[in-house]
Structures are given as structure tokens and as C-alpha cells.
Design brief:
453 residues, alpha+beta, Aldehyde Oxidoreductase, domain 4, 2 domains, seven-stranded mixed beta sheet, 20 strands, disordered N terminus
Length: 453
């Protein structure tokens, strides 16, 4: 966690002055900031953060050569991502449960980078709660989050660091206020540790016992002070991943491990060229009669095959005789694309140098490598006449939801997209589940769609 605290707040110094409500205006350079949170109306304590644009101090990169500015010369990509998430930061909430645990639905994709552990550490730190009592799950697609449900650019900690900590700190503050009210003491006489509030007269109360009483009937705002970094006991320390045991024992669940009743293995025979189409299938009836095969359907991205096992799907796909239509870039090659890139290049504006100065002028070509994570693209799709439900590891689930709804002719709110944890990513899993609803929409049971290398 220590290496990822670019967005960390500076510790309050002597010039930082407490407000009457107990909040602190923190100094960052010459700017002062408040941390505002929301107490959300709910049966138990639910809190969220509200972080303003002043929370970001954009970084600027200086170009060494006077060339036309790139976006990164104007603003750092990470700062831009942080700013894009700010308007909806108040929609991300920490829930305190009556069993003393805290729950958080993370609007990002966990694909092995360990962000469920990192976010749990942030919450555990601010709440003074044991790490094993913080449960972080992945949020379903929520269109209201806008740009706050995108995973990429190594920006999860940068974008979530302050909102997650603010919500957690507000939860702790509200729990202490509730205990103080119940015991008739000043809140500053109380302490909290390990999920328990301690009073000056030996009183104790677990977070779980206070959760319902700490809830509010009407959502309201509150100011909160975050923990001074010098007092961190969780952030910046070495911790085991919260899912480590499940990983090494094979209990960790991925998309294809989700148990959806009546779902059958499904694979797609795809065209040999990008965006190619199916003109005809010469042996459709023969393949349908193969062992275990239940459905063979022509879809927009190829020929979908459903069978009792993935092995039977593979056998059927290999047996298909498909006549393919042309794709959209059949005439392109590495050579033609390289020519296009070179034609689009903007010449460097090289400054003048003395005549005898030794200069180096070279061109470099970098080819994109194929990304092949341990888990291939996969999803479960249950598509009905009036609704669809998807399970997949998605880094842009809102986009997937929109694309699926448009393709199926359904209102977006009739498509439910569940984000599962993924086995690797590296440029994949953007909205690949958008390609999965095909056979299911033409048949009668859900698909477990698996990809291959």
C-alpha cells in the first residue's frame, strides 16, 4: 500500500485549524480542503464520501523538446481519472452490519492486482476494524456511477483512496457519536479499537450493536477528519491478500464457477478475419446431431454451439463447415498499418543546435503484443425475451450493459450485469461480455460462454 499513496493527504500541521464540528481543514501545498461525507438513509449505518475537485492537484509533465503538446503534457492521466470520478464519489458507500462487519461494493474489476485487499485495508484503517471484518465485493453495473466504474490506468487506489477513507472515517465517527449519546458522555472521551467502542467508565459496545441506532432516517451531510498518516497501523504495512487462501485452495470463484441453474457450456466459432460474417454453414444438421450438442445457432459474431460439455463444444466447432463473408479490414496488414501510422506522425520541432553538435536521430517501431491472461474471456449469459442477466469479469460493465441492451433491443435497466473476479487482464475484459448474448437469446436456457486461445 505504501507505494500507491500518491493521493495521500498531508498530515495536519500547526496551521491546520479544527472546525467546531471536529473536522479539520487540511493543507496540501497552499490549498485547504474539507472532507465531506453523507449519512445515508438506511436500516443500518450506511455512509458515503463527497470529494470536491479541489482534492486533485493536477501534475504537469514538461516536454524536453518543443513539439505539439500531448495530453500528458497538459494533465497527468491519473489526475484526469481522479477528477472524472469525483462527481459520483458520494454514491460509493460503506455499510456497517449488525454482526460487526463492514461491507463495501467496489466499482472496479479485481483481476489479480489485489485491489480488494487494498480497499479493505483503507477501510480497516479508518474504522479501527480488523481486516478480516471488512468484506469487499464487486459492484454490479451501475449507470449512475458514470466514469466511476472503469478499471484501468493503474488508477484504482488513486481514485478510491480518499472516498473510501472518508466513508470509513465517517462510519467510525457516527458510531462513536451514537455510543456517546447512549452513555451520556462526551464523544471525545471515547476510543475505538478492533471494532469495539470503549467509554470512560469501562463501558463497551461493538460496532454491530451500534449499527442500527447509528442509522439515519433522512440522508444528511457531515464533516469528518481523516486519520493522521503518522498513526497508520494498517496502510503501509505488509498484509496477506484477503483471498490468498481461496486462491491456493481452489475455492476462489471466477465467472465460469458461478452456479446458474440449467446453464450449459457454449462456445463461438469466430470468423478468421476481424468483423467477418457468416454466409452459410454447410453441415448445420450434421453438427446438431453430434454427441451432447443441444444447439447450433448463427449469431452476429459467428456460429454459437451449445453442448453438455466444453469438450463436445470444441468437437462441434472443429467439425463446422462455414463459408465466411469478408471482414472490415481484410486488406490491412502490419505493413499497411505501419504506413498509415507514419503518415499520421507529426514531425518533431527540433530546436536549432550549433553546426558541429553531434545529434542522434532514430525511429523506433513498437508492435502490440497479444495479451493472454490465465483466464480466457468468459461469461455466463441468461437472455430472455424481456430481460438479460450477465456474469463476467468486466472492467467497463456499464459499457457492456449499454451494448448488450442495444443489441437485444431491451431497455438498459432490463439488463443486469454482475462483475465477477477475473484471472488476469492486461488490456482485456473491457466489455467483452457484450459478445456473449447470442445462443441464449435464440434458445431456452443460459449459456456458460468460454473462450479459447
Amino acid at each position: 500500500m505504501g507505494a500507491h499513496r500518491r493521493s495521500a493527504e498531508t498530515a495536519p500541521g500547526p496551521a491546520d485549524r479544527p472546525t467546531p464540528s471536529g473536522a479539520v481543514l487540511e493543507r496540501r501545498g497552499t490549498a485547504r480542503r474539507q472532507f465531506l461525507g453523507y449519512l445515508l438513509a438506511a436500516p443500518t449505518l450506511v455512509v458515503a464520501a463527497k470529494v470536491g475537485v479541489e482534492a486533485v492537484k493536477p501534475s504537469r509533465a514538461d516536454a524536453a523538446i518543443l513539439s505539439p503538446p500531448e495530453p500528458s503534457d497538459v494533465m497527468d492521466l491519473g489526475d484526469a481519472q481522479v477528477m472524472a470520478t469525483l462527481p459520483t464519489s458520494n454514491l460509493i458507500a460503506v455499510t456497517v452490519n449488525t454482526d460487526g462487519t463492514a461491507s463495501f461494493e467496489l466499482p472496479r474489476a479485481e483481476v489479480g492486482q489485489g485491489i480488494t485487499t487494498s480497499i479493505a485495508m483503507l477501510i480497516a484503517e479508518e474504522m479501527d476494524l480488523p481486516l478480516d471484518k471488512v468484506h469487499v465485493t464487486l459492484a454490479d453495473a451501475r449507470p449512475a456511477l458514470l466514469f466511476n466504474q472503469l478499471t484501468g490506468g493503474s488508477a484504482t487506489i488513486r481514485t478510491m483512496y480518499t472516498p473510501a477513507r472518508t466513508a470509513a472515517a465517517l462510519a467510525r465517527q457516527r458510531l462513536l457519536q451514537t455510543a456517546a449519546l447512549q452513555w451520556g458522555v462526551e464523544v471525545d472521551t471515547l476510543t475505538a479499537s478492533g471494532g469495539v467502542v470503549y467509554g470512560p467508565g469501562g463501558q463497551t459496545a461493538t460496532y454491530g450493536s451500534l449499527a442500527v441506532a447509528a442509522s439515519v432516517a433522512v440522508s444528511t451531510t457531515a464533516l469528518v477528519q481523516l486519520k493522521d498518516p503518522s498513526k497508520f497501523t494498517v496502510i503501509g504495512t505488509a498484509r496477506n491478500r484477503v483471498d490468498a487462501r481461496d486462491i491456493v485452495t481452489g475455492r476462489k470463484k471466477f465467472a465460469m464457477d458461478v452456479n446458474v441453474p440449467n446453464a450449459l457450456p457454449t462456445m463461438v466459432c469466430r470468423p478468421p478475419t476481424i468483423n467477418g460474417t457468416v454466409r452459410s454453414v454447410g453441415n448445420l444438421s450434421t453438427v446438431k446431431a453430434m454427441p451432447g450438442v443441444t444447439d447450433v445457432v448463427i449469431i452476429s459474431t459467428g456460429v454459437g454451439v451449445r453442448a453438455k460439455t466444453f469438450g463436445q463444444c470444441i468437437d462441434a466447432i472443429r467439425a463446422l463447415t462455414v463459408t465466411w463473408g469478408p471482414g472490415t479490414v481484410d486488406s490491412e496488414s502490419d505493413a499497411t498499418m505501419l504506413q498509415d501510422v507514419k503518415r499520421a506522425e507529426i514531425p518533431l520541432a527540433v530546436p536549432s543546435v550549433p553546426l558541429l553538435t553531434r545529434t542522434v536521430n532514430a525511429a523506433f517501431t513498437f508492435y502490440t503484443a497479444s495479451n493472454s491472461p490465465l483466464e480466457t474471456n468468459s461469461a455466463i449469459a441468461d437472455v430472455r425475451a424481456d430481460s438479460a442477466e450477465i456474469w463476467s469479469s468486466l472492467k467497463s460493465p456499464i459499457t457492456a450493459q449499454q451494448t448488450i441492451a442495444a443489441r437485444l433491443g431491451l431497455p438498459q435497466d432490463k439488463v443486469k450485469v454482475h462483475v465477477t473476479e477475473g484471472g488476469g487482464s492486461f488490456g482485456r475484459h473491457g466489455s467483452s461480455a457484450a459478445n456473449t448474448p447470442g445462443p441464449s437469446s435464440s434458445t431456452t436456457c443460459p449459456d456458460v460462454v468460454g473462450g479459447t486461445r
